[in-house]
Amino acid sequence: MTGTAVRALPSRWGGEPLGFTHRASTVGLSSKFQQYMSQCDGISYTEASPEAVYRLVAPRTGDLSISATGLDFDLVIYVQESCGSSELVLCQDQAWADGATDVVTLPTVQGEVYTIVIDGQGASPETGEYELDLRY
Predict the structure, then answer these.
(1) pTM for this entry
(2) Please, which of 24, 29, 36, 59 could form a disulfide with 11 given CB 3.0 to 4.6 Å?
């Protein structure tokens, strides 16, 4: 993933297994996951928005709720089994407006590695601030 910073997610937050909210931005990041946009919403076009990429080692087996809110842009959530994998596990692009929230439920297996991608939605580059929330 040259040019894309992969951020590791903690397995514990505040003493609880993976329950936290993280606020960040896609501004200044690069675009490496264009190929997944058409798999997510069935529309075929060039996706040029940069992505924030997170690496998660599942702290336990169970359903992990992943929600993301684009505070000033429309976003999409992708989940892969590992960084650079061609396997798309989940994708959500239901919220079609700034400030809307996309939510996916990821069935995790303890010790497995997952890549969570926050991407801008649209044919032209969309960037901005977002909140990422993960809870078992």
Answers:
(1) 0.79
(2) 59
- CATH classification of the domain holding 98: 2.60.120.380
Range of the domain at 54: 6-135
**CA distance linking residue 26 with residue 11, whole number of Å:** 23
Q: What is the 3-state secondary structure (H, E, C) of the chain?
A: CCCCCEEECCCEECCEECEEEEEEECCCCCCCCHHHHHHHHCCCCCCCCCEEEEEEECCCCEEEEEEEEECCCCEEEEEECCCCCCCEEEEECCCCCCCCEEEEEEEECCCCEEEEEEEECCCCCCCCEEEEEEEC
Q: What is the pLDDT of residues 103-129, one digit of tens each?
A: 889 999 999 988 888 888 766 778 899
At 37, list the tokens.
């946009």
